Amino acid sequence: MTELHNLRAHRSAEHLPREQQLAWRIAEVAADPVAVDADVTEMIVNRVLDNASVAIASLTRAPVTAAREQAQRHPFGPGAAVFGIDDRVSPEWAAWANGVAVRELDFHDTFLAADYSHPGDNIPPILAVAQHTGADGAALVRGIATGYEIQVDLVRAICLHEHKIDHVAHLGPSAAAGIGTLLGLDRETIFQAVGQALHTTTATRQSRKGEISTWKAHAPAFAGKMAVEAVDRAMRGQTSPTPIYEGEDGVIPWLLGGWDARYEVPLPVAGEPKRAILDTYTKEHSAEYQAQAWIDLARRLGTERPELRDPANVASIVLHTSHHTHYVIGSGANDPQKYDPTASRETLDHSIPYIVTVALQDGGWHHVDSYAPERAGRPDTVALWQKVTTVEDPVWTARYHDPDPDVKAFGGRIEIELASGERIVDEIAVADAHPAGARPFARAQYLEKLHTLADGVIDPAELARFIGLAERLPELSADEVRSLNVVAPSGLIVPDTTQGLF
């Protein structure tokens, strides 16, 4: 059972009581010592495995290397583990390095509602603090359940992107709340940490606009790092701006909808299990989530109708889709870079015209090969790519926002006009891997994804050790939680390849 928290801006003279502030309500949820349901625990294990999959696949990529080497300059004991290496570092820096590794390939879980989110971004900071403080697996599970709950609840209600605020503004508070649950902190401390985490993690969406940079992977990691630091400060008695959401100079009146805005945030009532993770979904393909269903449709069409792969046979391809897809990753974004064969990987990841073109021609999608410069620059790909556009369809926009999971959809309708005059029309609602899709992901698929991405990267024995720990997550001792990490074989990670301040 949930309760809607009514949220609006307040003048200072109104003296909004602390108990009526959203940050306090978040703290109440985090401090509620409710048990974690078995199916929630099962999904948390899946997502720990999923995060490891994508972190392993990105171990040698430049942003991950830079973040890892920054973390290595901050050794600390007991400390927390960093993906790929044996070093122990200060927990906020482990959260940073592991957050970048998890986020770099845009390949882990997602939740889309009023805004966007990748709730698996909560796991690196919560796990880092668990390892540093000696928390056991049961506490870690409780903390992760809270992180997912708070982020999903915020995403259900508060749209950030329409005000050009990056979606990680919901992650700072959720990670701080999750750490509060992990450590069993009181409401006052969690309240202060949530406020500080929000205040330090609001930024514009330019990180996901135009020529998208490597910062896209760092932004969620930064939010996780700030959450760890906010909790540390709050535990030392330091306070945060209050009311952080509702205040006269707070987030709502100046960064979000303004003085007339009203939000209703659904939060669990006291004693209610935190189950929001079950409403989230992972990715089969390394691309923006709104591209997942389109990849599945395009690869099927390309296999069934190979002539569609030749631009000489195609007059136009129009994707009728939701507002979000059209304006964020479609032609409605008015970003020339989305049609630029020299664009960065991060930009191509946010170009549905490019993604559909490659999936159509290749009959699949690869987390490295599909973004390679030579792949993006192939003449027949460029020619077909320029013929793909998107339009917003009110029907698909409504389905995107529908709260009914049986109606909610992230795909659309494709209309292909051939040079011959023939028209091909098809549609897809959700990705094959979605819980309502053709091949929903369960433990077997999460393990398959992990084995596929770890193949040739991690020693099989090391991978088996990690999987054995992850699958016993709620039963792990503190020492076993500290070992919940994957170490790469000697020679894979070359040390000291980047130069910075420290």
TrEMBL record:
MmgE/PrpD N-terminal domain segment(s): 20-262
Keyword terms, alphabetized: Lyase
InterPro entries per the UniProt record, alphabetical: MmgE/PrpD_sf, MmgE/PrpD_sf_1, MmgE/PrpD_sf_2, MmgE_PrpD, MmgE_PrpD_C, MmgE_PrpD_N
EC id: 4.2.1.79
Residue ranges annotated for the MmgE/PrpD C-terminal domain, each copy included: 285-470
Lyase found in the keyword field: yes
Origin superkingdom: Bacteria
Reaction(s) the record says it catalyses: (2S,3S)-2-methylcitrate = 2-methyl-cis-aconitate + H2O
First-tier enzyme category under EC: lyase
UniProt entry tagged with the keyword Lyase: yes
Family: Belongs to the PrpD family.
Subunit annotation: Monomer.
Name recorded for this polypeptide: 2-methylcitrate dehydratase
Native source organism of the sequence: Agrococcus jejuensis
Lineage, uppermost ranks: Bacteria, Bacillati, Actinomycetota, Actinomycetes, Micrococcales
